[in-house]
Amino acid sequence: MNIASYIDHTALKPTTTEDDIIRLCKEATIYGFAAVCVPPHYIRTAKLELQDTAVKVATVIGFPFGYSTTRSKMEEIREAIAEGADELDMVINLAAVKNGDWDFLENEVERCTTLVHSSQKIIKLIVESGVLTDAELISCCALVRSHKVDFIKTSTGYAETGATVHAVQLMRQHLPETTLIKASGGIRSYAFAQELIAAGANRLGCSASVQILEESNKP
Q: Which residues are catalytic?
């Protein structure tokens, strides 16, 4: 298994520096990761560092809590695309999920997905599976399915519980194969990465990417 091709090499701490991003991009180029996932502030830096490579630039929208307004998220999307982002990882409005306000969520996801797709970019909806019930997660899958969101993503990395095999399996059971799954949050070993891929993950968001890759190369 070429584990590198599954990985979004990630640096999203609020204290991330430009040097951190440059190092992240160099590692992504050397190891052949699918993408880097960086704060919006560093999209241009990453785009410049990764020019003439196959590595995509991903960023986050409504991060990390998801409760900013729909209009704010749409403006973030516009700015991120203008800066050069290829993939947009947007946090669902968790307050709306917990209130069962699915009409609001239908509207937000439809508007944001349409905006991203109008620029031929990729949208990943972060649902923070670690704080959801199974029923809520299944409802999120229905939302993703009906609006043709490209990826559903488990976690921001800021909740107490990150990616789990159970969440990925549940998502896979309730989504068509054309909808991809990104597992993220707490993925620090090659063994766990393998488990998540076996469960149905198509992409992995990791900050421990190099360590995971080195483990994968051990005899």
A: 89, 153, 182
